[in-house]
Structures are given as structure tokens and as C-alpha cells.
Amino acid sequence: MIYVATGSDNVRVINGATNSIITTIPVGDLPIGVGINPATDLIYVANQNSDNVSVINGAINSVIAMISVGDQPFGVGVNISTNLIYVTNQGSDNVSVINGTDNSVITTITVGDQPSAVGINTSTNLVYVTNRNSNNVSVINGIDHSIITTIPVGNTPAGIGVNPLINVIYVANSGDNTVSIINGADNSIITTISVGAIPGPIGVNTSTNLVYVGNFSDDTISIISGATNNVIITLAGDPHPLGIGVNPLTNRIYVAGENGDITVIDGISNTIITSISIGGDTPTGIGVNP
């Protein structure tokens, strides 16, 4: 199942087997970030204008809880190993940590200026947060929730993706059209590579070791090889990609375009195989429940 947050204050649910919309779930005001725990079949949606998180039960596709967080929640990351959910609050420059067992906020962590995306390495239990206005990434220890280091990256870091199998983190720098590649073993920058114009969302396919970067201004998807850290393909996609979701089990990549279409990419051939309309809504975030 693919969950697409939209500007119409709802989440569209797409069946990945048929590429059809099966239901629409009302959530909070301006949903953006989508995080999924496939182990519990729960979906977490950050509602930016209502300062809360909607919790969706994937078995019945309905909201079962609303959790108050910080100011202007944006990104959502889920650690399936610890059942903790991390929500960036852009307006209050912090991260709310939610216990997935009882949906309570257990702590709040101060990070950089305007935190946006969250990436989690389940193998090391480290959490990576992009801070757009301070041009760095906060690294959080998932055990005691302390900041263990801050990594300078490019200009205006936006999206982030993690490959826990090789312990590498990818950060899209929307201000200088690059991706910073971080070694998770020592949190150093391995290299910085050029991509398209205003890169934002990132999706990592762990089964193929490929990284997908949506470039907002030139309507393309840069595909990076995790083995060589080079762009191997640039695909023309839907106008203004706003979100990317990956299903490593089916090798399907889902790119949410500003025009209201979800482009589906075959992760083996890296060709576009279809496009799914979400009925005129503007997608604001996307998540895949494999």
C-alpha cells in the first residue's frame, strides 16, 4: 500500500498491486510527512498547520489517534527496531519522539534551524535530521536521544535517505543542487555529487543499492549508484517531484508530482511504467507500506 498525503487534508491510499486508489482518509490540516511502521501496520502523518500527527491503522485505513507535537511538524521517521517515531517541528526547531506502543511523546530534542527530513539507520540506532537554515545534519543517538554530532553539508539541506545495509546516508541540498553522501561509521562526508535543480525528496532502494533524488525545478529524477556514488541515469518525470517512496520488495519507486500524479518506476529497468492520478489533489508527502 502507498499512502499519499495531499493538500486537501487527506491521505490517498493506493493499492500497489493494481495501482488504483482504494480509499481516502481525512487527517489534520496540511499533512506533509508520512512515516510507516510495517511491523505494526501503523502510518504516521505530520499535519503542519494543526501541530499534530495522525496515526492510521493500515489494517482498516482509518485514523486511530491524534498526537500533539511541536510547531509546524514536517518530517516523520520510524525506527521499526525500537518502535519509536521521530517528528521534526520546523517552527520550534526540535524533534518530537513518539512511543509507538502508546502514542505518547516521550521526549523533545532541540536540533538546528528549521529541521525538515528524518532518516533512520535501524542497524546503528542513529537518527539523522536535516536542518534547512543551518546547513547541517543533526545526528541523534536513538538510545538516550542526545545529539552526538552535527555534520556540515551543502546549502539548504532538504531530503534525506539512509541505506542501513551499507551504513551510508544521502542528503539532498536544495540550495546548491548537490547530494552530500555521509559515511555512517564516522559521520564524515564521503563525497558530494551534482544532481538536478533544487533536489528535495530522496528514496533508497536497499535491494538494488540505488538512490532516487527528485529535482523540483527541472522535473527530473537523478538515480545514484550506491556502489560508485555517481549519477547513472536521469529520468524525466512528472512536474515538480515532491515526494519519493520505495518498495524494495517489489522494486517499485513512487514519485509524487505537483500536478497530482504518482509516477511509478520499475527499479530493475529504471523506466517509468505507469502514472497514477490522485484526482487533482496536490501531493505533499508519500510513504510505502511493503
TrEMBL record:
Coiled coil: none
Superkingdom assignment: Bacteria
InterPro entries tied to this protein: Haem_d1_sf (IPR011048), Host-pathogen_enzymatic-act (IPR051200), WD40/YVTN_repeat-like_dom_sf (IPR015943), YVTN_b-propeller_repeat (IPR011964)
Protein name per Swiss-Prot or TrEMBL: Uncharacterized protein
Organism encoding this protein: Priestia taiwanensis
Top-level taxonomy: Bacteria, Bacillati, Bacillota, Bacilli, Bacillales
